[in-house]
Amino acid sequence: MTLTTSSNNKNFTKLLKWAFLRNKSIMIIFSVIMAVGIIINLYILTRLSVNYDKPGFEKTCGNIGYFSIILAQTLSILFSIASVSQTFSFLHNKRSTDMFGAIPATRSTLYFSHLLGGAASIALPFIAGSLIICLASCRSFEFVLLNFLAILFGLISIAAVYSFSSLIAYCCGTARDMGLITFAANAIYIGVLAISWTVVTLMIPGLDFESILYAPVLTLFCPMGFAYFLDIYYYGGQTAAFVVTIIWSVLFTAAAVLLGNIAAKTRRMETAQNEFNIKWVPVVIKVGMSVLIGGFAGLITATSFASGFSTMYVFTFWYILAGFAAFIILHLIFSKGIKGKFLSSLFAYIGTTAAAIILLFVMSTGAGIDTYIPMQSNISSVTFGEQNYTYSEPENIQTVTEIHKIITDGLKKESGNQYYIGSSTNQGQWTREIDESDYDKYSTILNTPFNFRYNKNFGFTTTRNYNINLYNLSFYDSQRMTELLLKLYNSDEYKKQNKAFLFSETSHSEDSVQLAYYEYNGRLTYDYEYYNGTEDYTASDTVELKKDRAFLDGLYAALREDILADPDFFYENTNRYYYGTYRYFGDYFLNLSVYSSAGNTDTGTYDDYLYDVSPSRNLVLSVNLTKNYPRTIAYLEANGYKINNEKLSKGSLL
User: pLDDT digits over 157-186, tens only?
Assistant: First the structure.
């Protein structure tokens, strides 16, 4: 007769204490490892203390503590599974099962007391060790908060992993099966998702790993990964994915606890050292592992031994062959022979395999993913372009989506609306002859990385990254694309980000402002395939401007007005090169440079190529003054600096 309760008398406190002490050896080992980690952490911090007054030390220490806690998260997950095996070992031994069945407590009391007592034995060393690391390494509230959140994520992970593993313990007849299935369930979900997404990204241009990294689907059935994804989402500012994962992890843990309690009430005593209490558990594992192994074999063979659309058939053949072989082997392992619901498991595998193959060939049409562009009304901002600047003005967002539309239209021409494994990496077929003039003609496009990151109103992101080069450029409306790019790159938002120092509201302590003519000495020499350029612009008539605060404020005000009005800002103030070629500015141009002892080097300028910047001072602003800067030139002349306008008037932009 199957028993469903041990007794109606509850003895929760004693059982909880017993479960906690049962993990004493695991607690000691975990605590010792945490102590060793703390000592190493303190040693590193002590060695770094000699750099206390150097910039970045505070951040370095905070990050050391943060990553130390992430390592502690990993240890807590592994020890949680070991603790579950120890705490619920009575379920997997017939003699122990009979003994615990005689304890005067209900099965629910037995389950919850062991669940909480065992989880506490892991949580306490983790909290204590992590707090010590946090207090030792954090020297600002920012990193205290970050480290405390990492501790919270670790506790969420302990709760999720412990409750899930406990559920599996009640579903299995042996500790071996419990451990294998716990790891397998997590590995299957992440592994199948990774292989599936790899196949899709190899088929459809624009997709890459980042396209799914911030999708909460990653965390659905992988409790061992909750802490890491929460770390990534918080550190990466992915608010929506972070909130969804927090909510889901709580719901997942609650569901695992509820199902564990049901399994505890319905578990048959004779399950110990024998079969599975929940019959569908091994079926799911067998099918999942077969799909994982089949997908891996299909992906490797398709990418290694096939090309074109034949990759689809090679993938299918090896997916079925390797997956079915894995299914038979796994069934023999779990069932110790051809028994134990073989037909039901086989039908489950056949159904899953058929669905996967159908989905594979549906994806060969693009399935709408290849042409998907978020609606402008759903976009709060978009990050795009040469410097990965972010645009939030509606007009600029529309410009970016139009550029994206040109690309998706070109993909239809290039692919013929049929994709296959490897087609996304084959972007760049030799479609026409190329000469040197193409590099200058299409320089705006060729210098632009087409990486789109749409930040949506509800906090989610959509990313697409494309490889556009001279070999596949004929598929796209290059003239219209160039017009849109120049419109974007000459927008106020681009200019303000490109010259962030000038438009920043924070104060700066400039060391010096330098004005210099740059004269063109002849044609630049370069190698189109490997950069081997020479610097044929040389400086002359260099002068240091006065450091008067009022003078500089007026100069910066004039610069801001000219920059916002400059129709050629992108060409005049951005380093334009491709395979070593340079944009020609004209015979002469005037450059204004601001150097500071602190601050970041200005981006998008000639500083790496034409200027000799001393390590003791950084170039924080560089502006090439042409005839499009009348206010700045007039301001300089009004303050006693003679400008050779004859030289500037000879300059021309190609």
Answer: 999 999 999 999 888 878 888 888 899 888
Chain centroid, CA 497 distance in Å: 23
Going 164 to 170 to 175 to 177, the CA torsion angle's sign is: negative
**Range 148-152 contact pairs with CB under 8 angstroms and sequence separation of 24 or more:** 149/230, 149/234, 150/66, 150/69, 150/70, 150/73, 150/227, 150/231, 151/69, 151/126, 151/127
Measure the CA–CA gap between 619 and 627, rounded to whole angstroms.
23
Position 388 scores a pLDDT of 82
Instruction: Give the other-Cβ count within 10 Å of 333's Cβ.
Output: 11
Amino acid at residue number 474: S
Dihedral sign from CA coordinates of 146, 149, 150, 151:
positive
What is the pTM assigned to this prediction?
A: 0.79
* Strongest mean pLDDT among 353-357, 429-433, 615-619: 353-357
Distance of CA 520 to the CA centre of its chain: 44
- Amino acid (1-letter code) at residue 401: T
pLDDT tens-digit map of 231-271:
888 887 788 888 889 999 999 999 999 999 998 888 766 56
- Return left, alpha or beta for 31; rule: phi > 0 is left, psi -120 to 50 is alpha, else beta: alpha
What H or E segment, with its residue span, contains residue 251?
Answer: helix 239-266
In the block, tokens 């978020």 appear at 374
How many other CB atoms sit within 10 Å of the CB of residue 3?
12
Which one, of 493, 480, 325, 310, lies nearest residue 395 by Cα?
493
SS (H, E, C) 480-491: HHHHHHHHHHCC
| Closest C-alpha to 125, from 102, 154, 84 | 154
More confident residue, 583 or 318: 318
Name 49's Cβ contacts closer than 8 Å, sequence gap at least 6.
none
